[in-house]
Structure formats: C-alpha cells, structure tokens
Design a protein that fits this description.
heterodimer; A: mainly alpha; Helix Hairpins; 76% helix; B: mainly alpha; Four Helix Bundle (Hemerythrin (Met), subunit A); 8 helices
C-alpha cells in the first residue's frame, strides 16, 4: 500500500485498460466506444510515464506524447466517420451497421 | 512521502471511477463528463511522476481539445433515440468473459514479476541531479534524437485533418 511503487501504477494501468476494453466490447453506442478507446490509450500512457519515471529515461514520456498525437488523430477521423455514418444510416448503434455480416 | 501516497490514491480513484462511469452511463453527455474526470485523474498522476509537460498537454489537449470535439459531435448527432434503446450488445457476456481471461493473465504476470520492479524503484529513490526542467529536456530530446518521428507525427496530423474534413463533407 505504501510507499507507492511502479507496481501500483502498473496495476492501475491494467485496471483502466480492462475497463476500456469492456467498454469497446460491450457498448452499442459508437460515441462511447470511441471514448473507451481514449481510456485504453490513457492506460498505455500511465504505464509509459511510470517506467519513464522509474528508470530516469525520457523516452517513455516522448512516446507518451506520440501516443497522445495518435489519439487526437484517431478521435478526429473517428468522429468524422461517425458523422458521415449518421448522415447515411441514421443510427449510431454499432450492431446495426451489419452490411458486411452474413 | 505520505502526501504522495494520498494523492496517488485520490487520483487513482478519480481515474477508475470516471472510467467505470464512462462505460456504464446511458446518456452520452454524462459519459463524456465522467471521461473528463478520468482524464484529469491521469493528468494528476503525470504530475506526481514529475512529468509536468505531459500534465499540461493532457489538460489542454485531452480535456480541452478532444473532449470538446466529443461534446460537439454528441450535440451534432441525435443521440436521444440511442439513449432509449438497449445499451449493451448481445455478446456482452462473451466480452466480459474474454476480458476476465485477459485480466487473469496480466494479473498472473504482474504477480510473478512483482519483485523485478524493485530494481527500478531503488533507482527512483536516488534521483540524479536535475539538469534542466522537464519541458526543456523533452524539447531537447524531441528535436534532436526523435526529430524524424516528430515530423512523421506532423504528417499524420495533416492526413487526419484532411481525412476528417473529407469524411464530414455533405457529399463524399
């Protein structure tokens, strides 16, 4: 419990990653699926920064910056696709978009 | 220090509670606000680990930028119908079981490897003398050692901007 070690951050990061994965796998609303992906990316960042701090290596923080850049790009494109989808299909439920399903 | 431990548990609670609320709320706006709480908790964790630049980036870019984008889209897209329907898909049980399996695997790995992290922690106990501020050191590394990835990231952002504009156009 005390003092706080790297393991604490890793356990927290795993918990957040699993919460995000549950959101991606079980929710129907695409907006909330995209939010769950943000949770997963944040879990990765906690991990990277924890090791960066523990090993006195700045590489982890640099990598976290690139992960945040990717998250921005992903959110912008994902929400653009969502708007196009809503315009054409009038739905935001992931399991109603089943054109490729047999 | 005790204050560090207390702050860690407060921020960890913010992160996890915000995350759980994000994936369980029916109303997407409530989800977005819970996600903001979670992201602010992550920002606090960065601050606890002396990553001040990432703290600022997290607050400005995530809470200020991405979440604003989400809220805009929530208002743009009519979610009233979706809020009245079923919130979880038919395969939710399969998803939960799969996640439980992954949780067991990762938990086992962390449990078996818990002693190996002490090497890193003993290293953290004696920090080297701080040469420069966090932002300065990050900028040094980003513009020398990591210059090529940095430029590639800017191309990625350009592609994402063009892509999202094309996607959101009236007629594709």
């Amino acid at each position: 419990m005390y003092p706080i070690t790297t393991l604490h951050y890793l356990v927290l990061s795993v918990a957040l990653l699993l919460i995000g994965t549950v959101g991606v796998l079980t929710r129907r609303n695409i907006v909330i699926i995209l939010m769950s992906i943000e949770l997963i990316l944040n879990a990765v960042n906690i991990n990277l920064v924890a090791f960066s701090h523990a090993l006195h290596n700045l590489g982890g923080q640099i990598f976290a910056i690139f992960v945040i850049t990717d998250a921005v790009a992903e959110a912008a494109v994902g929400l653009g696709i969502l708007i196009a989808l809503f315009r054409n299909k009038e739905t935001v439920q992931a399991d109603e978009i089943d054109l490729l399903k047999w | 220090m005790l204050i560090d431990a207390i702050s860690f548990y407060i921020f960890a609670f913010m992160v996890l509670a915000g995350g759980v609320l994000t994936i369980t709320r029916r109303n997407a706006v409530h989800s977005a606000i819970s996600l903001i709480v979670s992201l602010l908790g992550v920002a606090g964790l960065y601050l606890l680990q002396q990553a001040e630049f990432l703290f600022a980036v997290q607050v400005m870019l995530y809470v200020g930028g991405i979440m604003l984008l989400f809220l805009f889209v929530i208002m743009l897209v009519n979610l009233d119908q979706a809020a009245r329907e079923r919130q979880f898909n038919k395969a939710w049980l399969v998803g939960l079981v799969a996640v439980a399996g992954v949780a067991a695997e990762i938990g086992y790995v962390l449990y078996r490897g818990r002693d190996t992290f002490h090497v890193a922690d003993s290293l953290a106990a004696v920090p080297p003398p701080p040469a420069l501020g966090n932002t300065e050191m990050l900028a040094d590394a980003l513009f020398s050692e990591y210059l090529l990835p940095f430029e590639i990231a800017s191309i990625l952002l350009l592609v994402a901007v063009v892509g999202s504009v094309v996607m959101a156009k009236k007629r594709i």
